[in-house]
Amino acid sequence: MSTNNTENTEKRPEEGIFYNWNTIPNWLCFLRIALIPVFSYLFIKEYYIPAFIIMIIAALTDLFDGKIARKFNQVSNLGKMLDPIADKLSQMAIVIILIYKYWGTFLKYILIMFIVKELIMLGGGALLLAKGLRPSAADIWGKVSTTVFYVFMIAIIALSKETGALKDVAFFRDNHLLLSNGVMTVMVVISLIMTFVALFSYVPGFIVQVKEKRKYMDQ
After folding, report:
1. 205/29 Cα distance (integer angstroms)
2. Mean pLDDT, the chain, as a whole number?
3. C-alpha pair distances (Å), 195 with each of 65, 68, 117
4. How far apart are CA 34 and CA 73, in angstroms?
5. Cβ pair 88, 118 in contact under 8 A
6. Angle formed by the axes of helices 48-71 and 24-44, nearest 10°
7. Which phi-psi region, left, alpha or beta, contains residue 82 (left: φ > 0; alpha: ψ -120 to 50)?
């Protein structure tokens, strides 16, 4: 009886987090995480164009890692956990430096709400792990909110009248394409709404996992 129980509870190798971890998508995630302090340093030191280029590279790694994983069958358990971690670290770095840059404006209060949302997700993830469950992978709303976030934040970092990397380029300046604080506030609000929609989209999956866990424990 004990042997059978052991066989039933032992994880197969392919169920481990580090099984088949050495893949291109995972290394792209590692690169994205490594670029975070580089981008943050450059932006705070007002090297806006290099910071903008680094952010574009980071966004491209986020775009291509999932596509490569699916196309070349390189989906891994580590990647499922690493990708959202890299996303959250990147997004929080962007939010924090924008709070720093726009501390004297109303924009900072909206940006702080992104941190509140991440703390909620962190608490939910900790609760899942405490119950022996894994946080769900990002669904379509999570991907959409991430895309909107990157598009808007790249636009703000590139075209802000105050700190935009391209603010001194004649084409953008002369054609009134630079973003005022009002326009940036609207963009951030839209992104914030999308990120909370994505947050609530995890709730059904959370409930399903809890119910399945309870059903398993009752058997």
Report:
1. 24
2. 81
3. 21, 25, 8
4. 25
5. yes
6. 170
7. alpha
Contact 99, 111 (CB under 8 A): yes
d(CA 109, CA 143) in angstroms, rounded, equals: 24
The two three-digit tokens of residue 59, written as one number = 């966004």
Among 51, 196, 201, 187, smallest CA distance to 107 is for 187
The encoded tokens of residue 2 equal 């004990």
DSSP 136: P
Where helices occur in 2-76 by DSSP H, the ranges are 2-9, 24-44, 48-71
What is the pTM (predicted TM-score) of this model? 0.75
92's tokens: 């929080």
Task: State whether residue 26 is helix, strand or coil.
Answer: helix
- List, for the chain, all residue ranges whose pLDDT scores fall below the cut of 70: 1-19, 21, 128-129, 131-139, 205-207, 209-211, 213-219
Rg (CA), the chain: 20
How remote is the C-alpha of 87 from its chain's centroid?
2
User: CA 19 to CA 188: how far, in whole Å?
Assistant: 38
